[in-house]
Write a structure and sequence with these properties.
Elements lengths: L8 E3 L2 E3 L6 E5 L6 E6 L3 H20 L2 H17 L1 H12 L3 H7 L1 H14 L7 E3 L4 E8 L2 E5 L5 H14 L3 E5 L6 H12 L7 E3 L4 H8 L4 E7 L2 H13 L3 E5 L5 E4 L5 H13 L11 E5 L3 H13 L19 H17 L2 E4 L18 E4 L6 H4 L6 E7 L2 H9 L6 E5 L3 H10 L4 E4 L18 E2 L4 H7 L1 E8 L9
Parallel strand pairs: 7-8, 7-10, 8-9, 10-11, 12-13, 12-17, 13-16, 15-16, 17-18
Antiparallel strand pairs: 1-2, 3-4, 5-6, 6-20, 11-19, 14-15
Helix pairs in contact: 2-5, 2-7, 3-4, 4-5, 5-6, 6-7, 10-11
The structure holds nicotinamide-adenine-dinucleotide.
The site of nicotinamide-adenine-dinucleotide has 30 residues, from α8, β10 and α9.
GO molecular function: betaine-aldehyde dehydrogenase (NAD+) activity; metal ion binding
Protein name: Betaine aldehyde dehydrogenase
Function: Involved in the biosynthesis of the osmoprotectant glycine betaine. Catalyzes the irreversible oxidation of betaine aldehyde to the corresponding acid.
């Protein structure tokens, strides 16, 4: 298996190598084999990328928004045309099942480019009547923005950050996760092919220190990070100390509340989606599944039956529903939490082991795992595991469910299943979360804002909100009479 890119970085419209950088191996998580070798960025590469972005940004910002949008929409079409090959690359990079990457990764990147490419032309300022004099506001680009990605949705992350940034007239330097460096390079090539001027979207590789160098660079105006809460604290502190704007898309331990009157099959489907998609490596996953007493037995019965039927195996096989975790370290972490769950006294209702898969012995697989009889203070109910491990907790009243759902430092997402319409909206209004679902889970189309509250983040991706987060307001006062000066 070979997925070697032409070079490690993409700067000013072309591939660039600097072999002086720390070597990085790209591993196919299903087998553990090395599929590409690249280098982390040296300080020289960081400098080249930021400078290319700075040099290109001014002319780009002066184009008509509709002209910038046209290029994004052309890139969106190219992403869709190449969906199959990009999905395969994403599967090699992440280990996620091809049946997922074919519908959820390049496709979601294309959606973002299409949405922002169209929406940007309707971003307007305000007019304020001051009784003769007047004022207006302009939404202007910030300048050079940094995107730092996580490893669960690499091309989607690169697109969700770059599309609104570019649409608003900014330039971007994007650093993918060190675990999944490949698909952002493919996106960069597509942008160039679609006509994006050189220097506007640059990709540099590396570990956290490269991200920190970018986030603290004096030329940079904004940093947008997707990552864990501890990384978010560090990057936000860096941005703050240099007075840069920041968007933080961080982790979660989100609640999913199933009321007695829910449609059972829909609720079970929602809970499975909320825990096992992308092998459980989704920031917004509803990993605390609160189930009301009256529906509990029936819900658990169907939940376990359907979870046991999940097909785990070769991610490139179109019939496979669940691939491996990203790497050995994450595998060890998730298996560690399964042991913690057992030791804490939770009941292992399903999974918990490492499946034996012929030919994939070197892969980082874990069975879809469900713990029942989980109580609120267990570590498996409080800490983000980022793997296919669901905790089921029992509850009796609506008030109790709300209070316990909110009893967490995180606030990324929440979901509820009920057929009681007033209750659905009443409960959602009380939940401390940035993104909520009623009678579904984890759908995040480009048209709607996505992001967290509390420790889960600051700012929003997608929707018109993202265009605001990648721009700044200029106020212009206009006098129409004489200057009344006392001097
Ligand atoms: P991570 O925090 O380890 O790394 C995220 C990125 O930050 C990587 O590119 C990494 O190299 C970089 N980084 C690390 N230290 C840095 C530093 N000091 N300065 C600058 N950059 C630094 O996260 P991960 O393990 O790649 O991803 C999993 C986490 O991301 C989970 O917590 C998950 O919930 C979260 N996540 C959040 C969202 C969201 O939109 N809210 C989406 C996906 C993942």
């Amino acid at each position: 298996m070979n997925a070697q890119p032409k070079a490690s970085h993409y700067i000013n419209g072309r591939f660039v190598e600097d072999e002086g950088g720390q070597p990085m191996e790209v591993i196919y998580p299903a087998t553990g084999e090395v599929i590409a070798r690249i280098h982390a960025a040296t300080p020289n590469i960081v400098e080249l990328a930021v400078e290319a972005a700075r040099a290109a940004q001014g002319a780009w910002a002066r184009l008509k928004p509709v002209e910038r949008g046209r290029i994004l929409r052309r890139a969106s079409d190219l992403l869709r045309e190449r969906n199959a090959e990009l999905a395969r690359l994403e599967t090699l990079d992440t280990g996620k099942a091809i049946q997922e990457t074919l519908v959820a990764d390049p496709a979601s990147a294309a959606d973002a480019l299409e949405f922002f490419g169209g929406a940007v032309a309707s971003v307007t300022g305000d007019y304020v009547d001051l009784g003769g004099p007047f004022a207006y506001t302009r939404r202007e680009a910030l300048g050079v923005c940094i995107g730092i990605g996580a490893w669960n949705y690499p091309i989607q992350g690169a697109a969700w950050k770059s599309a609104p940034a570019l649409a608003m007239g900014n330039a971007m330097v994007f650093k993918p996760s060190e675990n999944t460096p490949l698909s952002a390079l493919a996106l960069a090539e597509i942008y160039t092919e679609a006509g994006l001027p050189d220097g506007l979207f640059n990709v540099v590789q590396g570990f956290g220190e490269v991200g920190a160098a970018l986030a603290s660079h004096p030329i940079v105006a904004k940093v947008s990070l997707t990552g864990s809460v501890p990384t978010g604290r560090k990057v936000l502190a860096l941005a703050g100390s240099h007075m840069k704007q920041a968007t933080m898309e961080l982790g979660g331990k989100s609640p999913l509340i199933i009321f007695d009157d829910a449609d059972i099959e829909n609720a079970v489907g929602g809970a499975l989606l909320a825990n096992f998609y992308s092998t459980g490596q989704v920031c917004s996953n509803g990993t605390r599944v609160f189930v009301q007493d009256g529906i509990r037995e029936c819900f658990l019965d169907r939940l376990v039956t359907r979870a046991k039927a999940i097909r785990i195996g070769d991610p490139l096989d179109p019939d496979t529903q669940m691939g491996p975790l990203i790497n050995a370290q994450q595998h060890e972490k998730v298996m560690g939490y399964i042991e913690i769950g057992k030791a804490e006294g939770a009941t292992l209702a399903c999974g918990g082991g490492v499946p034996r898969l012929q030919g994939l012995e070197g892969g980082f697989f874990v069975e879809p795992t469900i713990f029942t009889d989980v109580v609120d203070d267990m570590r498996i109910a409080r800490e983000e595991i980022f793997g296919p491990v669901m905790s089921v907790l029992a509850f009796s009243t609506e008030e109790e469910a709300i209070e316990r759902a909110n009893d967490t430092e995180f606030g990324l997402s929440a979901g509820i299943f009920t057929r009681d319409l007033p209750r659905a909206h009443r409960v959602i209004a009380e939940l401390q979360a940035g993104t909520c679902w009623i009678n579904h889970y984890n759908l995040s189309p480009a048209e709607i804002p996505f992001g967290g509250v509390k420790q889960s983040g600051i700012g929003r991706e997608n929707s018109l909100a993202a265009l605001h987060h990648y721009s700044q307001l200029k106020t212009v006062y206009v006098e129409t009479g004489n200057v009344d000066s006392p001097y």
